Amino acid sequence: MSRKVLGLLYTVAFLVFGYNLFMWSWSNQGYAPTQPIPFSHKIHAGDNHIPCMYCHSSVENSRHATVPALNVCMNCHSVVAVNKPNIIKLTEAYNSGKPIEWQRIHALPDHAFFSHQWHIRKGFQCVDCHGPVETMDKVYQYRKLNMGDCLQCHRDNGGPTDCNACHQ
Amino acid sequence: MRPAQKIIPYINQPEEIMLGVPNYYASAAGGSQGNGVLIKTREGRPIKLEGNPQHPLSKGKLDARGQYEIFNLYDPDRLTGPLKMVGGQPSVLSWGTADTEIAEKLKAARGRIAVLTGTVHGPARNKVIADFCQSFEAFHYSYDGWTHHAARKAQEMSYGGTSLPSYHFDKAEYILCLEADPLGTGYSSLEWMAGFGQNRHVKNNKMSKLVSADCGTTVTASNADERFRMKPGMSVQFGLAIADALQGRGAPGKHFIPRVSPFESEAGLKPGSIDRIATELWAARGKSIVMGGDTLDHQLVACLLNEMLGNEGVTVDGNGAPSNQAYGSVVGMQDLMNRLNNGQIDVVITFGTNPAYSLPESAGVAAAFGKASTVIHLGDRADETGRLAMYLLPGQHWLESWGDAEPQVGLYSVIQPSVMPLWDSRAAEESLIKFAQVAGVSGLGTFVGGWHEYVMETWRTNVYKSDVFAADFTSFWNSALRDGFVDLRVAPTPRTYLSPDLANLSTLRNSGGDLQLVVVPSPHVTEDGNANNAWLLELPHPVGRVSWTNYANLAPKTASKLGLRDGDYIKVTANGATIEVPVHVQPGDVEDVVTIETGWGRKHVGRVGDNVGGNAFALCAIENGMLRTMGDPVSIEKTGRWEELPDVQGHNYTEGRPIVAEAAFEEYLKNPEAGKWHEHELVSLWPEHEYKGNKWGMVIDQTACIGCNACMAACSVENNIPVVGVGQIRLGREMHWIRIDRYYSGDEHEPEFTYQPMLCQHCDNAPCETVCPVVATVHSEEGLNMQIYNRCVGTRYCSNNCPYKVRRFNWHEYTFAAYEPHPLQLVLNPEVTVREKGIMEKCTFCQQRIREGKEKAKEMNRPITDADFKTACQQTCPTDAISFGNTNNPDSQVSQMKKDPRAYNVIAEVNTRPAVTYFTKLRNRPTRDTDPYLGGHDAGVGEMQPKEGGHH
Question: How far apart (Å, rounded) are the C-alpha atoms in residues A41 and A38?
Answer without folding.
Answer: 9
